[in-house]
Amino acid sequence: MQNLLLVFVGGGIGAVCRYLSTTSIGALFGTNFPFGTLFVNTLGSLLMGFIMGILLLIAERTGSLMAEPMRLLLTVGFLGGFTTFSSFSLETVTLLHGGSFLLAGLNVLANVVLSLVMAAAGLLLARLLPLF
Fold first, then answer.
1. Per residue in 100-125, pLDDT tens?
2. How much is the pTM?
3. pLDDT at 63 over 70
């Protein structure tokens, strides 16, 4: 039951942060291109790599899996609520249906490439921290 509560709380906070982020980015850069979704997907990927990198380091160095509640809260819950793959998919299809093939392709390319780069960067950042 504790695990469900951690995911529930993290997911709710993540969803609110996603809403605030995407609306702020949309207001700043406009809505012709889904910059808000791109932002949360790439930031979420960076955070996923970083958080998992730190949790893996803690597990390696202590031999403990005590970080499991933090993983559930932060990655499954918060980042699950924060990142927006379903929004990304719908926005891409909407761009295609509107005839914006170049923007749709750019959206796919940018989300996939930047999210992969950011996940790798997060793992690298976690390894660079002097935790122990």
1. 999 999 999 999 999 999 999 999 99
2. 0.85
3. yes
Q: How many C-beta neighbours within 10 Å does residue 4 have?
A: 10
Q: Which long-range contacts (CB under 8 A, 24 or more apart) does 1-6 make?
A: 2/69, 3/69, 3/72, 6/69, 6/72, 6/73, 6/76, 6/77
The C-alpha atoms of residue 115 and residue 90 are separated, in whole angstroms, by 18
Region at 63 (left for phi over 0; alpha for psi -120 to 50; beta for the rest): left
With 0-12 / 13-18 / 19 or more C-beta atoms within 10 angstroms meaning exposed / middle / buried, residue 49 is buried
User: 99: which DSSP letter?
Assistant: T
Name the DSSP letter for residue 31.
S
Three-state SS sequence of 38-88:
HHHHHHHHHHHHHHHHHHHHHHHHHCCCCCHHHHHHHHHHHHHHHCCHHHH
In what helix (H) or strand (E) does residue 10 lie, and over which residues does it extend?
helix 2-29
pLDDT tens digit sequence for 4-50: 999 999 999 999 999 999 999 999 999 999 999 999 999 999 999 99
